[in-house]
Task: structure prediction
Amino acid sequence: MISSTFNIRFPIWKYLNQPIFDAKTPLVLNPNRFWYAHQVQYLERCWLTTFRPEGHFRNG
Result:
């Protein structure tokens, strides 16, 4: 059972628009494997983003 606060939906449009004959990204037909690969790519993108504080806290 999935909690209502943790509701990440399956990226159906990204799954359906996969490049078929691209050597860089292999075609993944299994939805479970695609979901796992999507989560890994999402986590990698989150790690690469720079942290920008919102300015609520002041130093000094």
Observations:
- The CA atoms of residues 9 and 35 lie 10 Å apart.
- Residues 31-48 form the longest helix (18 residues).
